[in-house]
Specification:
By secondary structure, the protein is an all-alpha fold. Helices cover 80% and strands 0% of the residues. The longest helix has 30 residues.
């Protein structure tokens, strides 16, 4: 059982650590610019860091849900690879947004494309699970390329 979800669990823990890093950056910015909670306005750099962290936190539940559904119903390795790329693009997003608001756009679009890809993988996996019996020729045709790559 564990070997069927180990990559998904690893990417999830890395994502949680990334969220903790983003939260720590907000704490450091609060101290640097002397902005006490619950205030969310002040120095423009603080506001960008705060907004970047909030935005990443807002998307994290969507990411983890899609990661696990795509990983369980489509393929763990493919989903984990997409998940690692997503975490990287969110890190670049955070860095870009902290520097300048325009710096977030490229990584934002890349991370959105990865979420759509994970959604597509999840939907394909779920459709295959519910619609195609394992013994059908359609399932065999869908699975064959992945078997050739050693991925299924």
């Amino acid at each position: 059982m564990r070997d069927q979800i180990d990559l998904l669990a690893t990417v999830t823990v890395l994502g949680v650590l990334e969220q903790a890093y983003f939260a720590m950056q907000v704490i450091y910015a609060r101290r640097k610019y002397k902005i006490s909670p619950p205030d969310t306005t002040g120095h423009p750099e603080f506001e960008r860091i705060f907004r970047a962290q909030a935005n990443c936190s807002e998307y994290f539940p969507i990411f983890t849900s899609l990661l696990w559904v795509a990983g369980i119903f489509f393929h763990q390795g493919v989903a984990a690879g997409c998940g690692l790329l997503y975490l990287y693009t969110r890190f670049k997003y955070f860095q870009g947004y902290a520097g300048a608001a325009q710096g977030r756009l490229g990584p934002l679009y890349a991370s959105a494309r990865l979420l759509w890809l994970l959604l597509g993988l999840a939907v394909v996996g779920l459709l295959a699970h519910f619609v195609l019996p394992r013994s059908s020729p359609w399932m065999a045709a869908l699975v064959w390329p992945l078997q050739q790559l050693g991925a299924w």
